[in-house]
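Schema walk-through. Below, the input block comes first and the output block second. Nothing else is stored per chain. Lengths vary across the set, and this one has 112 residues.
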Amino acid sequence: MRSSHYEEDSMTRSKGVSMTELGETLVRVLDEQQTSNSRLTVGFDILSELLRLFDTETAFKFVHVLNSRLANMDALTHYYLNPNAQPESEINVLKELFDLQIRAKGSRFRTV
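--- output ---
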């Protein structure tokens, strides 16, 4: 979020892009968006796809590194995941990476 306006960039993973290429692209886009007078806000809707394309350990490591990078940038980060679309074992591994979980049911939200 910029101090005076909201600017949105969107990335779509191209078929056949490796985890390394995805990470490099994310870092480049994040570096381009970071300014000294604003706090970066980032939303990711990639967890389900990461878990579908890669094993749980690889997805965990990727998100861990990404979270570290974003924390160093003092970014506010949101990840979205449909818990009904993933095995509970995968969710249990990934939830260690996050400070807060929010569940939505209809228009109601609650912390977990």
